[in-house]
Amino acid sequence: MEKKIGFLSFGHWRDAAGSQTRSAGDSLLQTIELAEAAEELGVDGAYVRVHHFERQLASPFPLLSAIGARTRRIEIGTGVIDMRYENPFYMAEEAAAADLISGGRLQLGVSRGSPETVLNGAYTFGYVPPEGSTAADLAREKTAIFLEAISGKAVARTDPARTGISGGLAIQPQAPGLRDRIWWGAGTRQTAQWAAEQGMNLQSSTLLSEDTGVPFDQLQAEQIALYRAAWADAGHSREPRVSVSRSVLPITEEIDRIYFGSQEQEDQVGLLEGVRSRFGRTYAGEPDHIAAELAKDEAVRVADSVLFTVPNQLGVAYNARILETIVKHIAPAIGWSAKFRNQDGSR
Q1: How is residue 232 annotated by DSSP?
Q2: What span, in angstroms and rounded, lies between the C-alpha atoms of 106 and 45?
Q3: Dihedral sign, CA of 148, 152, 156, 157?
Q4: Average pLDDT estimate for 286-312
Q5: pTM of the model
Q6: 8 Å CB contact between 208 and 276
Q7: CA 21 to CA 6: how far, in whole Å?
Q8: What is the spatial order of strands in the sheet that 207-208 belongs to?
Q9: 101-136, pLDDT tens digit by residue?
Q10: What is the number of other CB atoms lying within 10 angstroms of the CB of residue 156?
Q11: CA distance 207 to 37
Q12: Under DSSP, is residue 308 helix (H, G, I), strand (E, B) or coil?
């Protein structure tokens, strides 16, 4: 499968000195503008994180629909939607609408979500796991309902008093092929195998809530291998997609050195919610150095999609320059090549 690259934005905003995203409006509009710039550069995907109760992007479907309406080729997606917060039927309607607006370009990442600053956030939204089940159980149950809904299964019944018949009703609208473009964000090897069994693509997390002592990229590559083996065992008819995310900060100007010259560049290991976890490293430095390092990254080598996180508070122009450096000087080293031309004939 051909290698794809995309950007991943957390959509932070803060009314503070140095921030180019002072408000939620800034964050939303600039994400659309960055997606347009990324498409012009030949980048394959525009992805957003989803976090609730924080000054970050939280309601993805209006944003993805807007990006879909303003672009023509670039994939649009999430990494990830925390399913604990979702009404799976309403989400199925929103996802189908966004996919239809974009012409079938939605790549939707879903999962249990990451650790939060809010206490019992999903409870505040009105979603409480049944007694004896966990938050992870709730996320998986809602995902199963969502997958049925977008697959056109009957999820409600007609009212015989109004229709004269008794039959099943599916969620509308339906978006053809969307079921094959759902991804599960997995933070362990076991959850990756579960995702394969369910027929979902894999978004391997930048934070793995397990640690075997090997470097992050090796642990992630092992997770991907187990996922693909489980996919084959499940007998699915299509080839799955696998993405990894990397923090890449090329230094080409003095301002880059000021911002990123002192970045820590080793894996981080620590306790997260009582579990020993491993966090992926940051790649900062000269583009040729980053290219050589990424080419040796075992998970990057075996994934078909690589998402590059962007420091969105530095503004559209700055992040477009980062993406241009990645496109020209870094991504080719990991097996990516530009596939589309702009109207003026340039790559």
Answers
A1: H
A2: 10
A3: negative
A4: 96
A5: 0.93
A6: no
A7: 21
A8: 207-208, 275-279, 268-272
A9: 999 999 999 999 887 889 999 999 999 998 999 989
A10: 12
A11: 28
A12: strand
